[in-house]
Write a structure and sequence with these properties.
Layout: H1 65-99, E1 106-108, E2 123-124, E3 139-140, E4 148-155, H2 165-184, E5 194-200, H3 202-206, E6 211-217
Parallel strand pairs: 1-5
Antiparallel strand pairs: 2-3, 2-4, 4-6, 5-6
Amino acid sequence: MSSNVPPGGSQPGWVPPPGPVVPHGEAPGAWSGGPYQGPGAAWGPGGPWQQPSGPGPKPKKRFGCGGLVGAFFLGVVATVVGGIVLLVVIGLVFADDLESGFYDSVEHGFVGPEAEVPVVGDCLVPGPGRATVTSTDDVVDCDRLHGSEVTAVLDAPGRSGRPAEADLEAFGDDACLLAFEQYVGSDYDDSDLDYQVVVPDRSAWDRGDRSVWCLVDTTDGFGQDGTVRGTHR
């Protein structure tokens, strides 16, 4: 049998390749003899029995247990760090509120020069956020249940347009903090009480009203047994 005939005899349509038949993987001229019967034989380039040449496909990479543990650890660290940052931000905001008397200032309408209004030492029925300072309608005897007390009435500086909200609040906060400590007789940081700043709204300011009220908050039971003046609470 010719060395150019595939094993098992000829097949219809099979055309012998030119030159000697070389087993797959052997250099030309490195092999001679009868039909190659070893494994992986190649009967000519492109023949029906030629095995594919070249490297096979690379195996896919897979994450082992070590990769999963590392990813879990990084997730825990990121969560903890994020929580710490959030707590720091909340603490800074809360601390800023405490430094400013905890309350934002509220506004009052226009008060004319001849108007009867609460004065230092007056007690008002509502708490500082709802008390009326443009009249004496809310004024009661301090021996009665009340929600706020007047510690100071003063004028904000400025003759032109109304200052920026932050500037007006800063002035009122500093002034009312000093008035609070003088009225109650204790340091604000050591006190159980809070205070409220009441500033003129834009319309009142444009009409020349510069009056600022400082009120102590006595809604938390402190207004049930008289004034808080000089109590060192």
